[in-house]
Amino acid sequence: MPEEVKPGSVAAVTMTGVNKWFGDFHVLKEIDLSVADGEKVVICGPSGSGKSTLIRCICKLEDHQKGSINVLGTELNDDIANIDEIRREVGMVFQQFNLFPHMTVLENCTLALTLVRKKSRREAESIAMGFLEKVRIPEQSDKYPGELSGGQQQRVAIARSLCMNPEILLFDEPTSALDPEMISEVLDVMVSLAEEGMTMICVTHEMGFARRVADRVIFMDQGEIVEQNDPVTFFDHPGNERTKLFLSQILQH
Amino acid sequence: MHSAPSYSAPPREPLSNRLKSLFFNSPLDALVTLVCLFVFSYLIYSIVDWAFLSSVWRAEDEATCRETDGACWSVIDARHRIIFFGLFPYEEHWRSTVACVVMILTMIASCVSWFWTTVRLGVLWIAGFGLFYILMHGGIFGLSVITPERWGGLALTIFIFAAVSIIGMPLSVLLALGRRSKLPVIARLIGLLIDFVRSLPLLTILFTAAVITPFLLPGWLLGDKLYRVIAGFALFFACYQAENIRAGLQSIPSGQDEAGLTLGLNYWQRVSRIQLPQAFRNSLPAIVNQFVITFKETSIVTIVGFFEILASGAAAYGTGVWTVHYIEVYVFIGLIYFIFVFSLSRYGAHLEKKLRVGHA
Ligand SMILES: Nc1ncnc2c1ncn2[C@@H]1O[C@H](COP(=O)(O)OP(=O)(O)O)[C@@H](O)[C@H]1O
Ligand SMILES: [Mg+2]
Question: Which of A17, A147, A206, B355 could form a cystine bridge with A143, CB 3.0-4.6 A?
Answer without folding.
Answer: A147
